[in-house]
Write a structure and sequence with these properties.
The chain is an all-alpha fold. Helices cover 68% and strands 0% of the residues. The protein contains five helices and no strands.
Amino acid sequence: MLLDGQSLRAGIALAKARLCKHPNHMETLTAHRWVEEALAISVYCALKAPSLKEMLLMAVNHDGDSDSTGAITGNLVSAN
């Protein structure tokens, strides 16, 4: 399982730590810092909203690519 029972924040930190063990990881790590808008919004919603319902509502009720952010947020949350 991706997060193995950890919080999303802990899972992101673990993924970065594992990534750093691989040669030539800097391009991917740098790309993570400049994530696409939909992923950034999704991660924000998943970390900040107190419930699944509020996460998804927050993800789909903004200007922009809200259907994508709703789908990504749902996938991030279901990975936990």
